Fold this protein.
Amino acid sequence: MKAWRVDELGEPRDVLALVEVADPEPVAGQLVVKVLASPANFPDVLMCRGLYQVRPDLPFTPGVELCGEVVALGEGVTTFAVGDRVIGGPVLPYGGFGELAVMDAATTFPAPPELDDAQASSLYIGYQTGWFGLHRRAGLQEGETLLVHAAAGGVGSAAVQLGKAAGARVIGVVGGPEKAEVARELGADVTIDRREQDFVEVVKAETGGRGADVVYDPVGGDTYARSTKCIAFEGRILVVGFAGGEIQSAALNHALVKNYSIVGLHWGLYNRYDPTAVADCHRDLTRLAAAGAVRPLVSERLALGDVARGVQRLADGTTVGRVVVQP
C-alpha cells in the first residue's frame, strides 16, 4: 500500500515521504480499515517534530483520526464486520495518512450516517475534546458566556458548535476577517479579530464587565495570560493545548484573588481511565449530528499526494476548519 512515512524528525514538509509499505495485519482485538478520510491535526505536526507527548518509534505514518471501511478483523473482534464504516483513532505506526490503517476495536465507533466520510472523520478528537472539556471539565451551563480562542480552527470550530448546542452565548476569537466570517457561520454570537481588536476589552464590553464564564483555550502563551483578565467570578479556563508554541506558567495568586478555576484537559486519558464515558460521548455526538446541531467544518479535501503540503499549512497556521485527506 501507499503511505506517508516519517523516517526522521522535523518540519512536515521536510520529513514526510510517500512510500510503498507492506499491508498491515490485525492482531487480536484490532481492525484493518481502508482509509476513507483522515483530517490533519496539530498532534500530527508535533509528532513530525518529535514534540508530542506520544512519540512513536521511527518510522511511522501520522494521521491520528480517520473514517474507514473495515476490511479485516483480528481474533476476538465481534463488534464490527467487514464493510462497516467506522471512525476513531488508528494504532501507530499505521496512521490515517495511508491507504490502510490499523485500529483497536475497543476505541472504534460506528460512523454517523448523516455525515459524509470527511465530516465523520473529523467528529472524533476535536469534538470529543470539546464535549469533555465543556461538559465534564468546565460544567458549561445554558445561558453562560463561552469564549473560544482559534474559533475557526479544527478544535475551536467544534467548541463553538458544542457551546451553541448547550445554549451558551459564544464569543469567538480569530485571526483575520475571513476566519471571523467562518466563526459567524459556525454560530458564534460575537466574533473578535485579534489582529484588529483587543479581545479582553470586547469580552468585558459584551458581558457588562463580568467576563466570560468559560474560556476554551487551545492556544496557550499570551492568549492564556490575557484570558485571565476577562474571566468571570467563578469562571473556568480550559487549558486544551499550546498551538501558539508557548507553554505558559499560571499565576496561582491571581486565580485565588479573582476566584476562577484553571482546568486541564487531556482527552486521551479518558480512553484509559473511563472508556465508558468516551462511548457515551460518541452517542451524544451522534445524536447532535443527526439533529444537525453539529457538523464538522471541512474546508479542504486533499488527495493522498497532497498530505505533506496540507499538514505543513496546518503547522503554519494558515488553515480554516478541517483539512481532510481522502485517499
The chain has a mean pLDDT of 94.
